[in-house]
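Archive transcription. Copying these from loose printouts into the bound notebook so they stop getting lost. Printout 1 of 2:
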Amino acid sequence: MPHQPFHYRSLAELIAERDALGLSLALQEDLSPLAQPLCIGDMTAPNRLAIQPMEGCDSNEHSAPGELTVRRYHRFAGSGAALIWFEATAIVPEARANPRQAMLTEENVDAFKRLIDDMRAIAMKEHGINPMIIVQLTHSGRYSKPQGVPAPIAARHNPIYDRDRALDEACIVQDSCLDALPDQYARAVRLAHRAGFDGADIKACHGYLLCELLSAHTRAGRYGGSFENRTRLYLDAVRAAQAAAPAGFIVTSRLNAYDGLPHPWGFGASAQSPQEDLAEPIALVKKLHSLGMPLINITIGNPYYNPHVNRPYDEGQYGAPEHPLQGVARICRITAALKAAVPGMAVVSSGNSYLRELSPYMAAGMLATGAADLVGFGREAFAYPDFARDIMADGAMNPRKTCIACGKCSELMRQTTAGCVVRDARVYAPIYQAMKAGG
């Protein structure tokens, strides 16, 4: 069945389409699983709803939270979500994906602490809860643009990614530079703890540096070729972060289990076909579990190259080659497989936002079938920051407030400050119009 925009008016219509496509997609009307608490490490999440890391590109000139950053996280704190995954925060200046990406430093750690303290106060006042707040620590790798122009630090040449912009050999990062990065993750963890975060995510997804290394089959040296070499820096960064973390501080990861690229250019892909082969992702997640990681956040795809894989949409930069429900089902299938491999590890699912007001039924289905432990909403939180409040209080989401999967937030994120152009039009429509006018 070809690509179709979202058109479902009820759960029954969604089930009928799922069945017509022959998809396995857990859906249930009983939303009570979403309200259950969950123990993660030494902490308890008061419900099963999570806000995924969505970068606003609106830090100030000191890489600290700017005015719009504060506005966004105050709204997230008022949502009632149990877990707020703070956006990509660079570990070193050259690792930033844009000049206004957040970065923890000795000079700005107090500004982050004020924001975290405010978030906790808002959540307690409005919902009587203390949300878990995790910061995503990133190295942007081939997508680094610290001064606003490309300055790639790539793991290797990749003919698929390089098709639009060929990389000079000087852009391929040397082993000696990679050797120094675990200490930078450790430094960022210490700052994150001082800022009041409950945990830190060693980001390895969406084509950024640690993610790209996971598929570096053609790279020579200590960080390429074998599975042991390709996972070396990622695991070294996790271990360094754990060593730097005080008791009770969670070290976790948002991990790409499938890049959506054929072998040898993508992680989690079969050598015989472009379909997923989860043998290596499962082995990696089991290793993380053995290291004591209590929580993993699963995603797939690359928003720069194949956004239909990780963010099924109605409108995008190209016509998606599949029905969006096929993409949603793929994310759920892969997440469920990894959860089955590490039943003792808490797993956050992705891909919920596309289903709009019907997404709570899939979220509840994922929890009820044991396919995930928490359910994450990304672009939905941009559009509808109080989605969790409405789900918990009303048992439903308001269709007039949901994300419509139009992709405009992603367009903004590539060039300027990001947010929802449709549902938060007072702030972001003028920014979007100015971006379009400027070409």
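Printout 2 of 2:
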Amino acid sequence: MSNDKDLEQEIQEKGLTAPRITPDAIDSVIALKEFHQLTGTLTVCVLTLKNGFTVTGESACASPENFNQESGCKIAFENAREKVWMLEGYLLKEKLSSVENKVLNIAEICHEVNKSYCESLGDASQVSWCDAPPWQVDSACLGVELHLNDHSAGPQASHESWMKQKVSEGWVYGEKKDPELKTHHCLVPFSELPKEQQAKDYIFRSIVVALDSIYGDKK
């Protein structure tokens, strides 16, 4: 347990804040622990989790003279607890994967709707989602995450987030959009955008919020 605490402190000091399993989280799902000495040197720990699932851990020594009940129970418990780490890690990965898929699915819909809208304005430069370059996919996903995390964020927030990403990647204002030169005609404040360009952010936000309610608890 002391090793868990030392490692947890090190992780926090390094500022590693991405979703992860913590020692406290593991201990919080354990509802009951029981110990059974099946032979003279074999100790089994049975952990019952809050959802009713059970895991076991064992401890045994080769020489009966070395058997110590307290040590045997401690080792068996740690071995059982290690299995809980694996189970909780799997569940967290499933949840993160679900969120990633949700973001990508919504981003694809937003992208294709935006492509159709641009074509209605006479702009046929947009490619399909399957052909979109990585920077465009990342940009769409960032916009989706913004509105998933904050439904109150308006279309202006979407544009500002997009501008911030573009500037960080070295893009500058230019009369024409040019991925090679990294120039874009929409790198201006939201209020200075033509109405038809502002509409893109209104549409984008509306799609994200609407689809989020459909996905429900799958966030």
